[in-house]
Amino acid sequence: MKLTHRVKEILSWYESDNPGTKANLARILMEGKLGGTGRMVILPVDQGFEHGPARSFAPNPAAYDPRYHFELAIEAGLNAYAAPLGMIEAGAATFAGAIPTILKVNSSNSLSTTKDQAVTGSVSDALRLGCSAIGFTIYPSSEYQFEMMEELRELAEEAKAAGLAVVVWSYPRGPMLDKAGETALDICAYAAHMAALMGAHIIKVKPPTEVISLDAAKKTYEKNPVDTTSLASRIRHVTDACFGGRRLVVFSGGEAGTAESIVEMARGIYAGGGNGSIIGRNTFQRPKAEALKLLADIIDVYKTQA
Amino acid sequence: MKLTHRVKEILSWYESDNPGTKANLARILMEGKLGGTGRMVILPVDQGFEHGPARSFAPNPAAYDPRYHFELAIEAGLNAYAAPLGMIEAGAATFAGAIPTILKVNSSNSLSTTKDQAVTGSVSDALRLGCSAIGFTIYPSSEYQFEMMEELRELAEEAKAAGLAVVVWSYPRGPMLDKAGETALDICAYAAHMAALMGAHIIKVKPPTEVISLDAAKKTYEKNPVDTTSLASRIRHVTDACFGGRRLVVFSGGEAGTAESIVEMARGIYAGGGNGSIIGRNTFQRPKAEALKLLADIIDVYKTQA
Amino acid sequence: MKLTHRVKEILSWYESDNPGTKANLARILMEGKLGGTGRMVILPVDQGFEHGPARSFAPNPAAYDPRYHFELAIEAGLNAYAAPLGMIEAGAATFAGAIPTILKVNSSNSLSTTKDQAVTGSVSDALRLGCSAIGFTIYPSSEYQFEMMEELRELAEEAKAAGLAVVVWSYPRGPMLDKAGETALDICAYAAHMAALMGAHIIKVKPPTEVISLDAAKKTYEKNPVDTTSLASRIRHVTDACFGGRRLVVFSGGEAGTAESIVEMARGIYAGGGNGSIIGRNTFQRPKAEALKLLADIIDVYKTQA
Amino acid sequence: MKLTHRVKEILSWYESDNPGTKANLARILMEGKLGGTGRMVILPVDQGFEHGPARSFAPNPAAYDPRYHFELAIEAGLNAYAAPLGMIEAGAATFAGAIPTILKVNSSNSLSTTKDQAVTGSVSDALRLGCSAIGFTIYPSSEYQFEMMEELRELAEEAKAAGLAVVVWSYPRGPMLDKAGETALDICAYAAHMAALMGAHIIKVKPPTEVISLDAAKKTYEKNPVDTTSLASRIRHVTDACFGGRRLVVFSGGEAGTAESIVEMARGIYAGGGNGSIIGRNTFQRPKAEALKLLADIIDVYKTQA
Amino acid sequence: MKLTHRVKEILSWYESDNPGTKANLARILMEGKLGGTGRMVILPVDQGFEHGPARSFAPNPAAYDPRYHFELAIEAGLNAYAAPLGMIEAGAATFAGAIPTILKVNSSNSLSTTKDQAVTGSVSDALRLGCSAIGFTIYPSSEYQFEMMEELRELAEEAKAAGLAVVVWSYPRGPMLDKAGETALDICAYAAHMAALMGAHIIKVKPPTEVISLDAAKKTYEKNPVDTTSLASRIRHVTDACFGGRRLVVFSGGEAGTAESIVEMARGIYAGGGNGSIIGRNTFQRPKAEALKLLADIIDVYKTQA
């Protein structure tokens, strides 16, 4: 399969990586209906760990079965499917070679009182399960942020040496940030930038709001204004923060919303130069047909305008 | 390339180091317009991690792209370029062999409420990326200072065995120090001395002010007065504290200032026997032409008087 | 070089140690003007770390240069020189084989608000630098004492396997002890005993005062009185506490004093059966000629009466 | 130091290598009088191991001293100096940073009755000595060839991970080859190709003669004739065999010859697209002035026509 | 103990070694009656392993006891004592610190039909026994030479990292060499050179005879004649072969001979610039008084003329 010019250009950004890592990035970028466009839609299913099974799957009980998600991602023509160890183990043989997978190697849960995560998977796991990447979440600003970053450093070094890609979920939370601060424009951009600095190949952040949270940053934004009123320009600011647009950045779908609101968000991400959507609850909690329809609409946003 | 007498003399200070480490120090000291003089100008770009991307790069958006900094350092004829993992990865192949690099292997950020840092790079990373040195920041006086020192100890031992040099940023901060104390003369000298004691090859501290901060030290300074009124004599005191001038000591540019104030500071560093400037924000936040002009002026200070 | 009867007798105390450790103890005991007497004078230069460079070296600026201390120890005919990593690295090749060195592998500093230390050297460092021993400080009674003891345990075990000796600085300080308590007779004896119990080959404590600090100990001292009025008998009590005199115990010179007071203290240490003096500030802060004179006088105390 | 377009083009051939290896190749290619041209002259001094000290150095006794060879390579403005462990150890600190070195990590000798070699250096040695590459000799056709290839594989993998380059001397010898066969055109091309296949970055072979040695190959050469009468076209055939000219190939100077014959050979190598000469005996066995003259003439061949 | 100018000069040859290795070389060079002269007499007692106990010790049964050899070396004022594991273990504690020891870490025996050796000691053994160096024998030309060299390489790298010195016995034997060839001038020089190339700090070979053994070498010796008629000029040729005299070379006493013949040989070694004698059988097989007399006479040769 010949890589498109755009995918080759994207791979050239990762100039220090070995061909194995490049090949795995290429697999993700060339897969599915968006294959070759440089845009991606990824299905993440770590909700069960984060929020518990009922909050995750009761709205659509078919989704209790891990095979459901592989099938959803494949039928929808997505680029990759990301999940924790058990979810991948439960389908990796059946769907071997059918879709790139991302092994989520750390996880938090709603029963924790601390903003930390457990490492729940390894690079060896990712290799034996045929995954293309590991996924790791950091919580910048958490009192555990430095421990999480050090875990990421170690796992990322190992993953890269083994030819895997590294996907980082960068979700700010902690004593300095109120709820609004967690998705503030300056904070999202900062979180994305730190993931890039730590060597992430694909960066996942939440879509930023108009808020500027950090006092120390306000002066900068006054002097160097960003149009905060449009999602597209806010997305542009975040992708700028990722090495001037030379890292893949995808945005989560956020809280459950209407199909139209989600598609609208994709339009903003697209317009701002984001590389795509990573969208879980908003798809697997819907009946499958609806989910496929929604995903097709999102893909259309990224594709028809590619 | 034949080493100058001065560079050979400097290498002789590092008598316990293996030839690999000496060769990497030589590479840094022989590079660029100051090559061979024993003086250095280094470009550090860890601002993105420390202060966030907008505060670092919005004043000069071209600097969002990591390649910009490699180019700036090469065009300006600097001795080395220092940055965290992702920044180095994003240009290390394109600029392989073009300028010595220093992999900054720990990083803090403005979203932290503690005076600690995360280890974000390794000696293996430095080797695979072709770096000449690792860089590490300690915060003497921080409640995490001992942990940071122990991380440094371990990384430095490994780096030296692999023939790399070790650059230590020694930035005092913590419960015993108010803002003025962080750059007080006695504190800067102490911070520099501790870095030397931990085996640093190159020591980076802030230019010291006239303040004497530690009560316990005041008597000493009264009995053994240092001329605190001139920057040159304060710099001299700091380099004395680094093994009587037998360790390389470079000084940060400090807060954003006018070009003239920065060049003036270089004059003081030069006159006091400091080994050079490590200057980030004051260059990459300026338009490139201005930055090149400023760096040329700083280099002239160190060079014309060499 | 034939060992003296006295040195052989001392080595026999360390019957569980391997010949490598014994050889390194022999090197220290056979070196210098006191070589063979079983008494020692050691030069420790960790003041720079503990108190900062100006408080340590400004009174005698030649001492900023690490080579100064090697030379002082060699010219004075001392038994060993102890210092942190950077100080040893800066002279270990020039003075290779010229005097036994003790690598101080942990260090505190005056900018710390906690009574803890950082591990700043390793057994591998000691081997590559040709040291005869590692040195480690514990602060019995500190809230970090157990962590420090556990670090000591691990390093001491490793050092002994590699044929190195272990020197322990045992300096009580912490919430239960006021200033007077830190050098109280019962506390000094207790601190020395704990160092012996942890497997130290050479124990360094401060000269004890007449104070009995621990309430729980007072009854014992009343029942079993020690002549606390003479330094000699207090020293005897401390050496008794070190396995009935079967461990090497040396005493620090304490705060800066007159030459005569320091020589007088050596007389007390000698008379009480102490194994010698470990004396830093009181020598390297004096002009070299004075320091050599003072050290010669101290050595005379231990030697002429040997 | 800005890389030339040609050196960048050469580095692009090594697309799977990490930036560290590329930087070390760049160091070699940018050094000396041919720096930047893509052509190289390398000084190899492994003759002492291979042929004994008198046969190597008696004609020019100054060459017994390892420092002589560092100086010769530096003064002549060569690209690199290659030698076994002891030779590098004896000068690596004095000449740290002055010229790229290649640690020859295996060695044979004239007292062996088998066509094998001993591994006599390691990647760790290369790092601690500041080398840019390891060098390894294989004897294709020897009864020990597979053992040697397996040793190379292991060392090369380790070297590449540590950011070093790999130089392979490929010298066919063994039961199938008579003396003429060892430098036959088909055999040289085959030996060079195998080195390329094993992942060598720089390949060293002997200049090929007009002989076609392998019966099985003769038919091919009849069907697809190579102009064997000119050295240039034979060199072209060998460089073609190294990935169509996309690997660096250098040629040994061969047996002792006249200065003119050696320069003439360089002309052929140049014309055939070879990347340079690796020339030992023919330089260090001459008086230094003669050797410098000869090397200058060889360099002129590669340079003036570059 | 202040090192002499000559010993400092010798240490400067070993510029790539760490201070630990330099200190151990200094210990050997500063020990005994020749301490400081740069000349050495070493007692090796590996005969028991090589020739069996009766052939070694029956002529002087006191020598069955390992302590005898420590005492002999100490009383004679030698520089070091070399022996296999068991011999060192049997006296290392009693004689700890009394004389530098060299742990012979491989051994052959007369019951072998192959010219190989077993590795019988480790670097850890050397450290726990307080040895200053490891000793290793290679048999250049043996069919096992490459295996032995590879064992040496690995042990030497480990020893150097731990601050030990490496002594290599280079004894040619094998299918290409008849008895005369084993001590032929060209072969001795070659054997010594190979030990230097493998990184030996001290090289032990047999005194060379007038024979030139290797056909390939004869032409060289005709063209570049060595005065083979005097031992001194033959010794000079061997030391030249060891980096132009910049490695320590000692010569074995050879077969049992008269006291006068052995002293005469020392005169030749001295005159030819050899660094001393390593002499076993010829001392420990004599009654102790005779042995001490002989060693005193040998030492006089090296000392009075120093």
From TrEMBL, chains A, B, C, D, E:
Keywords, comma-separated and alphabetical: Lyase, Schiff base
Record-annotated active site: 171 (proton donor), 204 (schiff-base intermediate with dihydroxyacetone-p)
Enzyme category, top tier: lyase
GO molecular function: fructose-bisphosphate aldolase activity
GO terms of biological process kind: glycolytic process
This enzyme's EC code(s): 4.1.2.13
SUPFAM superfamilies: Aldolase (SSF51569)
Family indicated by similarity: Belongs to the DeoC/FbaB aldolase family. FbaB subfamily.
PANTHER family: FRUCTOSE-BISPHOSPHATE ALDOLASE CLASS 1 (PTHR47916:SF4)
Protein name as it appears in the record: fructose-bisphosphate aldolase
Organism (species): Teichococcus oryzae
